[in-house]
Specification:
171 residues, four-stranded parallel beta sheet, 16% strand
């Protein structure tokens, strides 16, 4: 959104109102830091880059395990997180693959129901994992072929960092 501020003027204006109230911003990368400086030239405060934390104490205990024909998708079901692409992409592949959907927010709302119906209609094997432990998450990640992150807006990219830490490819 920051790359093309003219298309997101109201969002940029909202951010600008918040930014002037602080003297320190925390962001996940140098790219984001540069975008902030470009979009908000009047901000004179400090911008610190802090990489997402990984629970490596738990991750390091996960030994090599057999790969399964699965993909991990860690996200909330927001359009900006790319959940709509999953039924389209994996429905086109027509592969016998399971998608492990990890989210702390799987409740009975209309967005989740629509997402699950799209996957069902595309004959995608979707396994929902709601509020699982770090160990369970790392086990699923370690066993999958890759972690799928179709997000168009990722603040910290924790699932990407965790997958890379485990040596799992990320698409």
């Amino acid at each position: 959104q920051l790359k093309n501020p003219k298309n997101h003027k109201n969002i940029i204006d909202d951010y600008a109102k918040q930014i002037v109230k602080t003297d320190l911003l925390i962001c996940p990368s140098n790219v984001t830091k540069n975008e902030i400086r470009t979009c908000f030239p009047t901000f004179k405060g400090r911008i610190e880059v802090i990489r997402p934390a990984i629970n490596n104490v738990v991750a390091d205990k996960i030994k090599n395990i057999n790969k399964e024909n699965s993909v991990v998708f860690c996200s909330r079901t927001y359009k900006s997180k790319g959940y709509g692409e999953i039924p389209f992409i994996f429905g086109q592949l027509k592969k016998d693959i399971r998608i492990d959907y990890i989210s702390g927010f799987i409740d009975n709302n209309k967005v989740h129901e629509a997402f699950f119906k799209l996957c069902s209609d595309a004959e995608i094997k979707l396994v929902k994992h709601n509020r699982i432990t770090e160990r369970e998450k790392f086990l699923l990640m370690k066993a999958c072929k890759f972690v799928f992150v179709p997000s168009r807006h990722e603040m910290l990219g924790t699932s990407i960092a965790e997958a890379k830490y485990l040596g799992i490819p990320v698409i």
